[in-house]
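Lecture notes, part 5. Sequence design as translation. It can be helpful to think of inverse folding as translation between two languages: the language of shapes and the language of residues. The source text, in structure tokens, appears below.
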């Protein structure tokens, strides 16, 4: 994976959005694994994946907040400015299995 140097606020914001997309993918994977282990009644592995999902959710929320601050400060993206929308409503962000 090639890394590029991030030197401007716009590049920093763009890199954050790319990382955010990857983290959301990992988050959904971990939730699916937690549900899978819940259905198999393996509480230890369910808790493991639920814990990983919680950590990912913390990272996602932190990056979303920082990105929103940059957007409000008027930092553009590299190309066209897009609105960051969360994949989840706040109520759906509960980590765990009912």
């Amino acid at each position: 994976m090639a890394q590029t140097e991030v030197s401007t606020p716009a590049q920093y914001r763009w890199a954050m959005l790319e990382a955010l997309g990857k983290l959301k993918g990992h988050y959904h994977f971990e939730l699916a694994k937690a549900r899978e282990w819940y259905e198999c009644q393996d509480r230890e592995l369910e808790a493991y994946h639920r814990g990983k999902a919680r950590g990912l959710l913390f990272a996602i929320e932190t990056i979303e907040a920082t990105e929103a601050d940059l957007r409000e400060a008027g930092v553009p993206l590299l190309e066209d400015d897009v609105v960051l929308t969360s994949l989840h409503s706040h109520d759906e962000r509960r980590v765990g299995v009912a």
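The translated text above is only one of many valid answers, since several sequences can fold into similar shapes. Residues 9-73 form one domain.
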